[in-house]
Amino acid sequence: MRRLLLTSGRGPAECRIAVAHSLTRLSREADAAECGYAIAPGDTDRHGPASALVVLDGPAADDLARRWAQGSLLWVCRSPLRPHHGRKNWFVGVVDLPLPQLVPALAAADVRFESFRAGGPGGQHQNKTESAVRAVHLPSGLTAIARDGRSQHRNKAVALARLAALLDGQARLAEAGEARLMQAAHDRVERGAAGLRFEGPAFRPVG
Question: How much is the pTM?
């Protein structure tokens, strides 16, 4: 399992849009790689989240995390909010947040499980049974979905682990000072060359 922080840092609203695009792109890549994931967006306005925690797990998680966690991401696009604005480069910081050796268990009373018929990878079996599970953390409203396993019992355990990793990440960011981490990530982005690059309104990958 891997855990990433995507942040707009101190960037303008266009960087929030870039974070939203990044989450959509990362989700699609995770689906294509049959990599499980869960996302916890931070402060969100009409343009998108200022930051987001992403938990990845499964055989493809390490490769996907290495691809994205290169310190920075560049979106080259004319501002969709300010058509006459000269700036075209919008940055997103991507930080690999280490997982603790032991993620605290969640109280059973704080979690509601919902089952549903899974789609996507998994073949006919998943389409015929309600094996997919959504775990909802009632105090925070965060959710995690698991549809990887062939049994509802297995998917409950996976969804719970993803949910616990998201909540633990939020707690650790609060302790370390999320604003400080976001600022440091943004400063590194501005000083160095971006890793991943995307361009245009469609957020197409470059290179």
Answer: 0.83
